[in-house]
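User: I'm preparing a small set of examples for a lab meeting where we compare how different chains pack in three dimensions. I only have the primary sequence for this one, and I'd like the structure in token form so I can line it up with the others. Please keep the answer compact; I'll paste it straight into my notes.
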Amino acid sequence: MPKIILQGSWSHRCRSVLTLWATTVDVLARRAIGRPQVHGWTISFEIATLFYRKQFNHAFRLDNIAQSRAYFDSLYTIAEPDLPVRVQASTAQEPRGHWFIPEHADKTHTLLYFHGGGYAFYPAVSQHFIRLLAHRLQTTIFALDYRLTPEHPHPAQQDDAVQAYRYLLAQGLRPQDIVLGGDSAGGHLALMTLVRVRQAGLPQPALALALSPWTDTGRRGASQFGHDRYDMVQGYQTLRYGQWLKGEGPWSDAQLSPIAQDLRHLAPLYIQAGGKEILVDMIRDFAREAHRQGAQVRLDVWPDMTHEFHAYGRTLPQSEQALTALRSAMRWTQGESFEPLEETERDALDFSDGKVQSERLIKPV
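Assistant: Understood. Below is the structure token output for the 365-residue chain.
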């Protein structure tokens, strides 16, 4: 059963509870007259999406980033609590982060994971999502606690990521034993880390998994603002995150965006996105560009889903499909087949000239 966590100051908790209550009443009332936000959504998914949107919007109105982080963490939900995953903080000799070790870990891979949050947040709910990933993928995960903006602008995050990758190699892991992964800004960091690793003359990992990745720090695609009415994150927030990432430095969007990089000679890329999320157009643009440059890339899109729908686990069929596909992608690196999911008609992309070069629009089971 999903679980609700309350923490922090009474004022934050009270406001969050009232927001959740008001959102629930609004969703139920609209559905009673046949007006769901999206017909393919479950009631719980609609409530959660609209609730987190309100939470993010209020957090962005607060006076400072510390208060914003505290407020967002004051109430959150866990789709699958009490999973058999041991969480262990890194030692003083390791990069800052946490090890997530499932009860029956497959020793084939170690996943170096970068959390989302626009580079400015590391929400408490993110650690529970990483626990879910470790359990579902049956893979040991090192989740990097990289430095956050606006206190630490670029290149702090990329420096931290490359240091973590170097550390895993220094511990005896072979490149083919390592998978990079990340969601949202963490997907951005995973893609940029592949480029930095190549520039540093280091070997590429076996695979990169990018979940709803942020691929352009500027403006790109109609969905960035056109899907505000559906998504839990909003277009204006992406621009603020981009400003914080640049800080006072002389960085351009092209310098900081995966879509503008040289994407040749990178590890295979497996990308997942929701068709209703604000980033879906820039994600599709990135997949096209990666394919144009000769990268091995597969993009799966769930048409009715929003940003980071993966976190709902077994409570949402689309999330369950996505997690299963991530596991299949990792097994593909070991020579197993990566079977296509049930799909609708192909979208505009026609990636037909490679084993995993495609876009699929995925039906819920």
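A couple of notes for your slides: The longest strand covers residues 106-114. The radius of gyration is 19 Å.

User: Perfect, thanks.
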